[in-house]
Write a sequence for this structure.
């Protein structure tokens, strides 16, 4: 059983989920939902590195997500850059923005950090909303279909496998990081910044590194979503989306990669299951956020893990 | 021989209060140097000044002859300074061995990309850090607790865990802030042994401690602070017999206790 | 010059509303360390309930009073049902809870009321008053005047009543306050009630000028939060000055620079201030003890 714990256990669990789910899928609709889950989970894993491991809050991560999404819309349409190159550019610019604003922002703590990241995210969303000649304004803009080696990438089934691949690689990289010198330094500064500093860790630099990495995760996820949806809107970069990402992290479990997947799954699928109550969508989302945070404070995966461990002993 | 640490006319103010004021001293290589004084005398503040946690308002700090005044803690660590904390600063969510592995940080040289892809160099680094950490856990007597979460260890064990972590850095100078506080007689005895072994291994030790028996027994030099000022510096005997110290700090009770430590 | 006056006046008017929202933040933050992102929803409730009660035939003052009562009730419910059960949760969790409450209340308003924009008649007519070439709405005077009255009333409450002093004591040190026999649970409930009332009043006052709808709360909350942060979190006077500053900067920025990015100005200012002085204009800085 020991191998199910730790890095390879988590990867195995993700692989099994990805491989087995399609057996139970009666229609393309389910592939679509699962694809949305993988995409969100990818962004959430990145955010979890920042929040769950390094202990730094970001209420503006949808800004990076939106940059990735708009890169693959604006790049090919307005600048003639091939889609894949646009996605890479999107990830690079999100990383660059994180690098530039990260140093001053990450000096802040607690509520101050929250409001600074929030402000940054909102500014990105405002630019996307206002620069209509580039972005189509509040209505957003279409994204042309991804063509790779003369082969059209389309359909929920194909995207299911592509995004699952990204999720798997994203989880693998994150798990590697957590158990490396950098990951240990991040976890250390989460628990005691002073001790980390005195222990020779350049705290500002490490926070900046993980901020950039998490921004790149979000941007890649954003690009995937834009390709998959064939449409981008400023909402992808909006405040509400930032909050959804944060909620997924906390709901699944801070500092749990598997939790990131679970958190994304719950928050993506529940509203889908409740679409009959379309008018009540916000009401439901708000209620869910409150209930989860009150009753499942530590997150689903850590809570379950403790339950199971408790039973074994 | 050059002093490991040279503190010159150092001082810091907190909201107009001079928490530490014009204190100077030197620590020679291989010494166990203790700083004592009543509560609020500025002992921990002194450690915070030396280790860069606070920036001094006045004065200078030299580490092995090099002026390091105002350097941030992580730079000082690379120059061979390490410390523990009076109120535990353990990484509670990490295992015991991981805590000590973090202490190896400045000796870990692998790139970010290598870490993301877990390249062989990273795996080798992780093994090396873990091995060194295990040796140190063994040294402080916590080898059997290596893979337990630090949060689940008892207080005395955490004190020793911090010592192991601070040694992992490979310091020239180690600042120990009340390593025996809250420990019972047996645990204090163990810590006493540890400190002497650390000093024997060539690490210079600066110690803040309330347990007078421990201080008098193991210190080469003692600095007495009172209200942020230097009262006296000298050997255990000199300090114990100084009338000012007796008046300001030891009192009748402390004196008898110190005397008992002699036998 | 006329432009300048016009911008200054509209900036002060909007700024007074931000100041009231920021003040609401501050009161709750001081009593409980909770940053209440649902603060903007109190403003929304104040406006929307008044609109609908007024449309149903109630006289405006009665409709406004009803709105304040509803908001206070919602504030108490929020504190009792959502904050109290999560008292010891980490700040991120509490932030998500209050944001959840904000989204929930917005969704509720959408169902109970509608998704349209609504207005109220100005309290004393729409005839602009001309001063130095600038046209000033009489409603602006109502906003500014009421804001001043609220500030003074709060000041008197906190400094000259026993209950107010109990709130301040709780803010300074909750544990010590409990030791000397202050009912901190009551203080928390009170802070939510007072904040909700202030928010609702702001909502009633501003609706004739800026209109209201189910979703006006979010941006107001964010800007109120930015104002509180600008002034220094936890400092009531800082919150007021921060609110006025944000309002003025917005008005001048929109007037002289670019009106499309009016909403961005508050956040640019905040980022700028936080980078230069992380504790805000009037915040306390503190040294970490180890």
């Amino acid at each position: 059983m020991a191998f199910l714990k730790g890095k390879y256990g988590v990867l195995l669990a993700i692989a099994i989920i990805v491989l087995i789910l399609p057996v139970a899928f009666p229609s393309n609709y389910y592939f679509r939902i699962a694809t949305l889950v993988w995409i969100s989970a990818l962004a959430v894993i990145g955010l979890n590195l920042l929040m769950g491991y390094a202990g730094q809050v970001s209420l503006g991560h949808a800004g990076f997500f939106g940059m990735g999404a708009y890169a693959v819309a604006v790049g090919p349409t307005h600048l003639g850059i091939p889609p894949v190159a646009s996605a890479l550019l999107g990830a690079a610019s999100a990383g660059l923005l994180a690098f530039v604003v990260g140093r001053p922002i990450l000096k802040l703590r607690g509520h101050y950090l929250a409001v600074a990241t929030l402000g940054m995210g909102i500014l990105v969303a405002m630019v996307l909303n206002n620069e209509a000649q580039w972005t189509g304004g509040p209505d957003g803009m279409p994204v042309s279909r991804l063509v790779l080696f003369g082969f059209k990438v389309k359909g929920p089934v194909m995207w299911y496998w592509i995004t699952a691949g990204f999720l798997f690689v994203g989880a693998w990289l994150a798990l590697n990081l957590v158990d490396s010198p950098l990951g240990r330094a991040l976890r250390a500064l989460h628990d005691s910044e002073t001790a980390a500093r005195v222990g020779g860790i350049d705290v500002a630099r490490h926070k900046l590194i993980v901020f950039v990495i998490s921004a790149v995760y979000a941007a890649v996820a954003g690009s995937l979503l834009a390709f998959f949806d064939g449409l981008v809107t400023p909402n992808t970069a909006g405040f509400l989306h930032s909050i959804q990402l944060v909620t997924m992290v906390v709901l699944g479990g801070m500092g749990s990669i598997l939790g990131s997947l679970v958190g994304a799954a719950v928050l993506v699928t529940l509203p889908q299951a409740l679409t009959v109550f379309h008018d009540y969508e916000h009401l439901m989302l708000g209620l869910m956020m409150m209930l989860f945070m009150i009753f499942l404070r530590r997150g689903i995966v850590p809570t379950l893990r403790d339950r199971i461990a408790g039973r074994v002993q | 021989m050059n002093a490991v640490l040279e503190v010159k006319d150092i001082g810091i103010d907190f909201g107009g209060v001079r928490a530490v004021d014009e204190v100077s001293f030197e620590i020679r290589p291989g010494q166990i140097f203790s700083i004592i004084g009543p509560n609020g005398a500025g002992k921990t503040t002194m450690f915070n000044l030396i280790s860069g946690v606070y920036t001094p308002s006045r004065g200078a700090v030299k580490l092995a002859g090099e002026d390091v005044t105002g350097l941030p803690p992580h730079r000082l660590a690379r120059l061979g300074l390490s410390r523990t904390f009076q109120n535990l600063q353990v990484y509670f969510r990490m295992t015991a061995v991981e805590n000590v592995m973090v202490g190896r940080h400045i000796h870990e040289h692998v790139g970010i990309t290598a870490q993301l892809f877990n390249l062989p160099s990273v795996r080798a680094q992780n093994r090396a850090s873990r091995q060194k950490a295990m040796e140190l856990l063994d040294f402080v007597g916590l080898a059997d607790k290596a893979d337990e979460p630090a949060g689940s260890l008892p207080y005395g064990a955490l004190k020793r865990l911090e010592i192991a972590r601070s040694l992992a850095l490979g310091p020239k100078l180690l600042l120990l802030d009340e390593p025996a506080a809250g420990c019972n007689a047996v645990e204090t005895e163990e810590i006493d042994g540890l400190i002497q072994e650390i000093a024997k291994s060539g690490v210079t030790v600066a110690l803040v401690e309330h347990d007078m028996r421990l201080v008098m027994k193991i210190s080469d030099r003692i600095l007495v602070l009172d209200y942020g000022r230097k009262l006296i510096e000298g050997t255990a005997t000199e300090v114990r017999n100084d009338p000012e110290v007796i008046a300001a700090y030891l009192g009748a009770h402390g004196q008898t206790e110190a005397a008992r430590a002699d036998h | 010059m006329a432009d300048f006056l016009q911008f200054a006046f509209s900036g002060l008017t909007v700024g007074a509303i931000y100041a009231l929202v920021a003040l609401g933040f501050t009161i709750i933050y001081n009593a409980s360390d909770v940053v209440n992102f649902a603060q903007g929803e109190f403003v929304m409730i104040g406006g929307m309930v008044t609109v609908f009660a007024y449309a149903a035939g109630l006289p405006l003052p009665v409709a406004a009073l009803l709105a304040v009562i509803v908001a206070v009730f919602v504030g108490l419910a929020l504190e009792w049902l959502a904050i109290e059960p999560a008292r010891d949760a980490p700040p991120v969790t509490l932030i998500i809870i209050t944001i959840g409450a904000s989204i929930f209340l917005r969704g509720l308003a959408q169902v109970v009321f509608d998704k349209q924009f609504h207005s109220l008649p100005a309290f004393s007519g729409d005839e602009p008053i001309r001063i130095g070439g600038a046209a000033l709405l009489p409603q602006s005077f109502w906003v500014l005047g009421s804001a001043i009255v609220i500030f003074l009333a709060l000041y008197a409450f906190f400094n000259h009543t026993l209950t107010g002093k109990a709130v301040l004591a709780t803010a300074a040190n909750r544990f010590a306050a409990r030791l000397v026999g202050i009912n901190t649970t009551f203080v928390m409930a009170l802070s939510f009630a007072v904040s909700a009332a202030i928010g609702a009043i702001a909502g009633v006052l501003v609706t004739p000028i800026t209109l209201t709808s189910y979703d006006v709360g979010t941006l107001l909350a964010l800007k109120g939060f930015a104002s509180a942060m600008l002034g220094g979190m936890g400092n009531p006077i800082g919150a007021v000055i921060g609110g006025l500053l944000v309002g003025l900067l917005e008005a001048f920025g929109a007037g002289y620079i670019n009106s499309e990015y009016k909403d961005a100005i508050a956040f640019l200012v905040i980022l700028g201030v936080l980078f230069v002085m992380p504790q805000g204009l009037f915040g306390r800085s503190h040294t970490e003890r180890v």
Summary: The domain at 2-276 of chain C is CATH 1.10.3470 (ABC transporter involved in vitamin B12 uptake, BtuC). Chain C has one domain: 2-276.
